[in-house]
Structure formats: structure tokens, C-alpha cells
Amino acid sequence: MNPIIAIQENNHDAFKDIYLQWHERTYYFFLKKIKSEEAAKEMVQLTFIRIWKYRSSLSINHPFEVQLFTTARSVLIDELRKHAHQRELQKSFAKKVYEDSENCVVSIQFENDNHLKYVLHKLPPVRRKVFELSKLEGYSYKEIATLLAISVKTVDNHLSQAMKQLKALLLVFLITLINLFQ
Asked: What pLDDT, on a 0 to 100 scale, did the predictor assign at position 7?
């Protein structure tokens, strides 16, 4: 019996035989294209799932190999599009967070003061003090300059540098979180 007809008739043994015959070649097709063993294995599975799901549309007039690799190419394109879309969303999200971080760094709700202390401890001592006085205690630039015996311009420079450092730390933290959930 033709294996395509057997698969169309829900013959699991015929499908298993086809899988055993073609899965390795399909795997190397994907591996050559994407250079990731895990992703290639997953795409092989997706390809054969799709073959089984749409088994009624298989044609006995075309070789199975042609139909298999047409399906494999379709799976590859779908996966590449999906990953490109995810990367674009991540970039867009990271860019938005970076742009908005100056406004939201102070308003982030930390689980406890230890998180805030940890992040602020990454700043140099004077910069940290200027940031704390300005953003956490609400002092004006002029008041901070008087308290620390520095110029208003120095206060402005310290705050600008502190915000840049905190943005970078926040961006690294968010990228790490995004990668954990992939």
C-alpha cells in the first residue's frame, strides 16, 4: 500500500515508518539553515505534526519527499517570522523602557528597600547622595548644592550620570527578565 494513502487513512504505523525514514534528513535540513540543534529538533517535530494534521491534503500524485520539504520550508519560514517578531517586540520594549526610564526609575515599586539600596550602591558615593537627596527626599538642585558644598551644575551632572547608570542597570535587568521567559 502506498504510504501516503496509508497516512491519509489514519494508519499510525505508516506514519511512524515515514517519520523514521525522513526525520534525520529533515533535521539536517533545518540544522543547515538555522545552526541550532534544539530549534532544528523542534522544527522537525512541528513539520511532522503538520504532515499528520493535514494528512488528508497529501497528494498521491507528488512524491512524499517533495511534500515533506515543502511543509518543512513553510515551518521554517513561520518560525523565522515568529522569532523576528519576538526580537522586534523585545527591542521595542527595551527602547521604550530606556526612553521612559528617567521618569520611572524613581517610581518603580521595589519589593523592599534592599532592592533600592542594592541598585543605588552601584553608584559612586557622591552621585548616590545627590540622587537620594533629589529623587527620594525631594531637595532642589540649589539645596543639594548648598548641603554638599558643590555647584548647581555639578549637582545636575551627578543626576544626569546617575540616571544614565540606573537606566543601563534597568535595561540589563529587563533584558535578563525577557530572556528568562523565552
From this structure: 92
Residue 77, CA distances (Å) to 38, 48, 50 in order? 17, 15, 14
Cell digits for 177?
527578565
Residue type (1 letter), 4: I
Grid cell, residue 30, equals 533545518
All domains in the chain, ordered by first residue: 3-88 (1.10.1740.10), 105-180 (1.10.10.10)
Q: What span, in angstroms and rounded, lies between the C-alpha atoms of 8 and 56?
A: 5
Provide the grid cell at 171. 535595561
Q: Are 71 and 7 in contact (CB under 8 A)?
A: no
Q: What is the pLDDT of residue 50?
A: 95
For every residue of 132-161, DSSP letters joined together read IIIIIT---HHHHHHHHT--HHHHHHHHHH
User: Which cell numbers hold the place of 11?
Assistant: 494508519
Across the 182 residues of the chain, what is the mean pLDDT of every consecutive 10-residue run?
Answer: 89 94 95 92 95 93 93 93 77 63 47 61 87 87 91 92 81 69 60
Give the pLDDT score at 109.
43
- For 88-97, b/e burial (b = at least 16 CB within 10 A) is eeeeeeeeeb
